[in-house]
Queue: 4 jobs
Job 1
Amino acid sequence: MTRQWTARLRFVNPDKETRMKKINDILMTKDPFEEILMGNEAVVRAMVETGTRVIASYPGSPTPEIAAAILSIPQDRRPFYFEFSVNEKVATEVALGAALNGNLSCAFFKSVGLNVALDSFVQLSLMNITGGMVVVVGDDPGANSSQNEQDNRNVYQMARVTVLEPASPQEAYEYYKHAAVLAKKEQTVVVLRLTTHVCHARQKIRFGARENPAPYRTGFNRANGPYIALTTMALDMKRNAIQKLRRAGQYIQQAGLNREISSQNSTGKGIITSGLTFLSVLDVLEMSAYRPDILKLGAVNPLDEERVLAFLEAHEEVLVLEELDDILELRIKALAYDHGLKTKLTGKTHDEDFVGEYTPDKTRDKLAAVWPDLAIPSPALPALPLAVPPRPAQMCPGCGHRSAFFAIKKALEKEDVTVADIGCHTLGYMPPYEMGEILLCMGSSAGMASGLSLFNDQKRVVAFLGDSTFFHAGLPGLINTIFNRHNITLILMENGTTAMTGHQDHAGSVIPVENLLKSLGIESILSCDTYNQSKLTELVRTSLAVKGISVVIARHPCMLKFTRQKRKQPGFVQTHVDIDQDICTQTRDCVERFSCPTFTRKPDGTVFTHPDLCIGDGSCRQTCPEKAIVFGKEAK
Ligand SMILES: Cc1ncc(C[n+]2csc(CCOP(=O)(O)OP(=O)(O)O)c2C)c(N)n1
């Protein structure tokens, strides 16, 4: 199958360093220009052009490149204030506070970040946000880098917020600008709903000019409120939110955000779609026997009922094609029912329709099932000459978490229960470590472990937690453990960064984790470097013998971050380890128990190392009972 529309988006990743150096110049250019940018980067240019003044975020895929692009602009040139907040809820609150001072503001985060922000987020539409506020949420259909593929469109109707959904990086840029204009005009919040491949695709985009930023404002005035949504006050504020949403609908119509792509030979058929699915539909219809008309919705809330009704009336059959849940479909069916329309409406018909991204292949299958006479050929991508072996996710060479898992496993019994949390250390659940048997969401390990420990004298319960997650949502669970005197061992995997999402800074750089733990009154806090494996094993054993809460801080800097920094130093020589084949007796502990990707077993049973993977850290050397792992020739 040819992919003309989705292929116009580029998914390649050129040399990151060079790109990031260039990107800040691009983002700060004064006059209009054209450039190939990633969706996430295009959003930053829109922030610059719209005069967004305060931006707050907590990292998470698919949006961390928004932060990377922002941070590529040196702080003294940055035309806005930016911070990584401690979590998504706080980011939303910081952005709101700044907007109540009169500054256009923005909070951005990933799909599940909205769950964390929700308590504050649902209040936003009730507020008169004088400066205007945009919330950028990166949904992740296909769960490419998330613990689920939740469809946040389910929430927006409840929260009574306007939601714009771009299909491409170009639209991501344009729609952010619309969101900003509307948010300022109505003194409200507008959501820009991105999805993974809109965030990460690259496209040549025509950008506008930028003005010098206006001074920061500090003009909060409670007379612009009410800002306290208590009892009956909340009802008037809700009435106001409904009015704003209605007026947002008028803006959406006037701005032409919902558009129709008409065909000469639609044969009375139409498709209503939005987001990236729209591009997949265009791709697939390149090869069809006829082309249904398309109504492409750029605004998923409020629904442009007038436009949708006119489209339904003009067609005998309409297919609603949307990724994930049947949000549009149910509302469109209700609309058709209310107006007594005879249009045949089809949407999701199988469980699989609710699962995964609507790639051109998936979209093709759905279209072909609903309208076989479209006669769309089956995917015609050439088969690969060799089956590519699956490559499971794994920790990087030299990762301190690997050393930790190797050491901790030695201290555990088979029946002990281990509870995972979210971060690079989640990979501890993979063989050969197999630690962390349950995972919910960020910061959930201490709470779950506490529940598991109740009435449980037979099994010891161990919870893992990363340091960024500790501050994000881990603290309440831990405080609950202390408060209610639960009996767990917490292993804090401290690597000094938010590793999994690209090494963002976190509160631990200002508030040391160990100090905070001590201040909570935990009596048993032990710590060591994870490369000191025998010591870590011993500390975990000691900790497991403690009744009540005990903590082991398993510390080692993230080696990916550390090695990248080291490689930039002049005269740096990469060292690596080798196997001394004269000593090696093929116990294969390095491959089967330590499992660093540097070690590979040949068909004849001998083991060799990959110098291109090995970072020369040597954390593996203590794992070999024969001491056959030695530093290579370049070792210092
Ligand atoms: C609510 C929420 N926000 C953001 C993320 C994205 N995310 C995945 S892991 C992680 C943090 C990992 O940092 P840390 O706890 O320090 O563990 P590390 O990866 O450094 O081992 C983040 C922010 C998420 N999964 N859920």
Note: Residues 58-60, 110, 112-113, 116, 422-425, 442, 466-469, 493, 495, 497-501 surround thiamine diphosphate (CB under 6 Å).
Job 2
Amino acid sequence: MTNKTFFYVSSLVIIPAFFVLFFIARVLGRVYAIDQWVPKWDTLLMLATMIIIERIYTYKSAVSQKSVLARDVIANVVNLYVTGAVTGMIVLPALVFLPEHLLGRRLVLASPDLLGPVWFQVPVLLLSISFVRYWIHRLQHTVPFLWELHAYHHRVTDLQATNTLVSHPIDFALRNVVVYLVLGIIGFNPLALLIAVPASGIPGTFSHCGGDVKGGLLNFLFVTPEVHRWHHSAKIPEGYGYSCNYGVEFSFWDIIFGTFYLPQRNGVAIQPERLGYPGGGLPDETNYLKLLLVPLGLYRPLSWFRDVARLGRRPEGQQPAE
Ligand SMILES: [Zn+2]
Ligand SMILES: [Zn+2]
């Protein structure tokens, strides 16, 4: 077997191996409450593994992300350790108390078994999570205010592990946190949640792996890096409106709703020429604060305060006019 064939064949194995190993690890991690010792250990380990894969299976059109590394690190820390906790604090009380107040009962069902046996609840959970996230993501491209927030994620010039979590915190919470909070209080069987929740988070994370890994037939089931690259293409494929491939974990929602795009040549997926802001309008932004505050209309007031503070500090040697 030549070197090239070996790399091609082995690159096909990466995705199923990653999915299976991390599914087992994440379930065991929950059983043994590893998060207690190293919070978010599973996401950190997934990102580290993706970085190693990027080093071995180098992508021919990779774009260095060194210039935005500080922004990436800040965005990762915020969305990994702050966004979920803050969203929970804001949304959970409303989710628990509003139905109780308005309907006179909690949203939580009396018995988890009302939703059917575990083997049935697992696919129901996976389909519900991915269906809701597909539509939230699609709305994030079509509703102007949501797009203002989501555009942040689309200014990256390449998919890499380091920018997996680069998103405005509100955009990130809407797509990645709220759905889990709602499902958590509906009253699914804890075992079904133990299986479905860790499983659902793996493809979405891996879809940002910048390595040259091939999806093969899995491209039509999961959102692989080959599929997600088209979602980040600077040039939107003709006839696809705002974007294509909105799915977060499963690509079949895109196939069902007519938004799937993955051209092939001899059975191998073709990849977009350039990634970046759709239409090529905006370059990537290194200033995290700008990305955080501009969509909320808060950056101008902040720079006004900064200008006032700067005016207060007169350049050295300059005397006040009398
Ligand atoms: Zn998007
Ligand atoms: Zn993305």
Note: Residues 153, 208, 228, 232 surround zinc ion (ligand 2) (CB under 6 Å).
Job 3
Amino acid sequence: MSEGMDHHSITRRRFLRFSLTAVGGVVALRPRWSAAQDEKKEDSKPEGSRSASRPARWAFLSDTHIAGDPEDNYRSFYPYRNLQKAFTQIASDLPEGLVVTGDIARLTGQMEDYENFKKLLVPLVGRRPIYVALGNHDDREHFLDVFETPAAQKLAVKGKHIVTVDAGPVRFILLDSLFSTNETMGLLGKAQRTWLQRYLQTSDDKPVLLFFHHSLRDDDGDLQDLPRLFDIIKPVAQVKAIVYGHSHEYGFSDFEGIHLINLPAVAFNFGDDQPIGWVEARLGREGGEFVLHAIGGNTDQDGRARRLRWRS
Ligand SMILES: [Zn+2]
């Protein structure tokens, strides 16, 4: 890469850089130019009135696999166009926020991948918060270089990207299962598991949804410390669901009453029977409703709603 190109990419990086801003207990990715305005808006609402009883509507996405080249494609799918379509749909009827469960980047988490992701975010940014969990094709340093994180979040667990979100009637905890960039397996690790255990001990009775990238089977590419995670969350009644991606398959299952929600990929499927798209979630104190927005692949289930009741 020539020096000229380096300079160009740094300039673009600065231009596209967003900051993470604490807003009424919620830490969100927001552009600098709208942060003050957003804080003011939130401040004007009385404490605790932020829709704790009304269901919260969110967009859940996974595996966007954005490359530096917008024409990058796989199995006749064009991830850049697919994410553009998903974000356009989401922007046309704005939910309260978005969560993306990793594999933002195509393969090795290049800066250009994240810059393209940012470009696609333009219709949403400054309007709603976007929270990201990292996947095995992400690069934590590159991600954090583009998406700034406040010191407090950086310190939660050294070397891991953790985000907690007060989403009205429910709480989100985004964990970091990225073990090593472009190695398939996932691991939370002991420090992060210990952090989670302590965090859950001190949190109130709001239903908690956990988010991370890796899938929950017993293969070498899955979350390797899943049994230890289950040991921690099984006795904690607030934990109602785990939302994840990685498999590029859409599906619902459960473990001891904890719902396991596998999001479809936005980018491409691995099998023709699978949709690509995103999931619209309505989340309340008692349960949630999940509607598939299929934008390609097998679209048979497009618009279908799945209702889940939280365990007590
Ligand atoms: Zn993926």
Note: Residues 1-49 have pLDDT under 50 and may be disordered.
Job 4
Amino acid sequence: MNRVLIVGGHGQLGFELQRSAPRDLDVVVVGRPEIDITDSESIERIVQQYQPGVIINAAAYTAVDKAESEEALAWLVNHKGAENLAAAAARSNSRLIHVSTDFVFEGDNCTPRQPNDAVLPRSVYGKSKLAGESAVLQQAQNALVVRTSWLYSSHGQNFVKTMLRLMGERDSLGIVVDQVGAPTWANMLAETLWGLVATDATGIYHCSNNGVASWYDFAVAIQEEAVSTGLLQRMIAVTPIKSEAYPLPAERPAYSVLDVSATEQLLGRQFPHWRESLRLMLLEIQ
Ligand SMILES: NC(=O)c1ccc[n+]([C@@H]2O[C@H](COP(=O)([O-])OP(=O)(O)OC[C@H]3O[C@@H](n4cnc5c(N)ncnc54)[C@H](OP(=O)(O)O)[C@@H]3O)[C@@H](O)[C@H]2O)c1
């Protein structure tokens, strides 16, 4: 089997890809400073060195709110960086698997979004990621773009870890209830990406845990599961609030649930419900 190169190896997804890598694959993991996807020469050097058959891009500018004031950097990494990787993949005849986001959708609907549904990102992050998707699909004929949503993992900073910290420190929390999505364990996404490596799928696919939640629902579940596994010692009051009561620089889609049925069909299995994956992640960090 060809070598698989994971780019962005030190992020949440990169970490999960590394630890769930199938033993029979030759997997190389690179992250900064070894590779900077905004620098074509550093990509070329790594691709020449490892000659991968498949490149998985888990590198991105992911600071959604900061991107509103660091627009040029977000575009450089998420658009130009993705384009650079796709060009290198095309030159070396490697297959690129590129990860993208539910934030490419406007979020004004309330049915799960299909891969080919109309996109209309509202934030700098979403716009820069959409431009990255387009560049990848244009540059590399056999590229695969996998959109995911609301990622969390035991590694790195994310909503679950923030909730655990705040629930340990405070007596009450107000959490946004009018944004709905599908929380996704990066480990589940990583296993799906390994499944997709073994297919010859091209184009856009979606991968998230099944089920739907508001951030409020997710927070309530995190607390319930964390108390039951002993990660938290007591329950605090968690109340639903509207987005306008918690203003953030970046506009988020109100509804960004991804339709994952095509990916499930391709892989011949259903993705677990988000609550089941949340429980496994919390058991892991217990
Ligand atoms: N997090 C979410 O909720 C979420 C939701 C939907 C989709 N996604 C997508 O899922 C993918 C993985 O996200 P994640 O949560 O694992 O992100 P993450 O934890 O922020 O990791 C991103 C990684 O990219 C690296 N990186 C940033 N700029 C780079 C550059 N110029 N060259 C090389 N590496 C660079 C970062 O390195 P440094 O640590 O050195 O900055 C970091 O290790 C991304 O494509 C993201 O857009 C994420």
Note: The mean pLDDT is 97.
